[in-house]
Write a structure and sequence with these properties.
Elements (H helix, E strand, L loop, with lengths): L1 E4 L14 E3 L2 H10 L2 E3 L12 H11 L9 H13 L1
Antiparallel strand pairs: 1-2, 1-3
Helix pairs in contact: 2-3
Length: about 80
């Protein structure tokens, strides 16, 4: 899984904030849960490969109100519905 670091030194000594790394899914999940990494976006269009956190960030950046959506499927539906407007 490809991740982008939000804190230094979590993958390798000297790794910088914003650098991207390929790691196992279990390592990626631990780093994401700790808040020191996020899943690197797979492309410009949100899809199932994006984490809920990345979907929320994307929605905020493009001005989409997610309302009460909390599940990934609901968030994606809200984003895709707003994109088609």
């Amino acid at each position: 899984m490809r991740i982008r670091l939000l804190a230094r030194d979590y993958v390798r000594p000297g790794s910088e904030v914003g650098s991207e790394h390929d790691v196992s899914e279990s390592v990626a999940n631990r780093l994401i849960e700790r808040g020191v990494a996020q899943q690197a976006a797979r492309g410009d269009t949100p899809d199932e490969s994006w984490t809920v956190r990345n979907l929320r960030v994307y929605a905020g950046e493009v001005g989409i109100d997610l309302g009460d959506a909390t599940k990934k499927s609901d968030i994606l539906a809200t984003i895709h519905g707003a994109d088609s407007d």
